[in-house]
Design brief:
- There is one protein chain.
- By secondary structure, the chain is mostly helical.
- It folds into two domains: 49 residues; 53 residues.
- The chain has five helices and no strands.
- Helix 1 crosses helix 2 and helix 3 runs antiparallel to helix 4.
- The relative contact order is 0.10.
Length: 145
């Protein structure tokens, strides 16, 4: 089962790189904030359409049960679309995606360690630190001219 989860995660990474590229192209046509808004509207319409088909497994009526901070994901989504589209336009897809992945891994390690946002704490180890340093070194090599 873990292999399937990792394959799904890899697929999401692939889709993120394509999405960032598409968002960057859209921002050239519409403007950065306009593109971020448009992407969120298209996403909301898609999500609603999927919910109306009965694919949802939960209930929107339980919205009061979620902690307030979990709703910040929508705010972060707009910021992410804006920043990724801008970074790709200025630095290129590979460079921007490399920086994004490194930022994600470092942040994920901190979230895991402290157990923020309701996740089970995961200890930080020397090997994780070495892995992050090697990843940073690889990013530096990829990004250096």
């Amino acid at each position: 089962m873990k292999v399937l989860a990792l394959l799904m995660a890899a697929l999401s990474g692939l889709l993120m790189a394509v999405q960032g590229t598409l968002n960057s192209a859209l921002s050239k046509a519409l403007g950065l904030l306009e593109a971020a808004f448009t992407v969120q509207v298209v996403g909301a319409i898609t999500g609603l359409a999927l919910l109306l088909t009965g694919l949802g497994q939960g209930s929107l009526l339980k919205f009061k049960e979620a902690p307030w901070y979990t709703y910040l994901g929508g705010l972060l989504g707009v910021a992410i679309v804006y920043l990724v589209a801008s970074a790709i336009a200025q630095a290129g897809v590979a460079s921007a995606t490399t920086a994004i992945i490194l930022g994600q891994v470092i942040t994920a390690a901190v979230v895991d360690y402290f157990g923020w946002f309701g996740v089970e704490p995961v200890p930080f180890s020397l090997w994780k630190g070495v892995g992050i340093l090697l990843m940073a070194a690889g990013a530096w090599l990829l990004l250096s001219r």
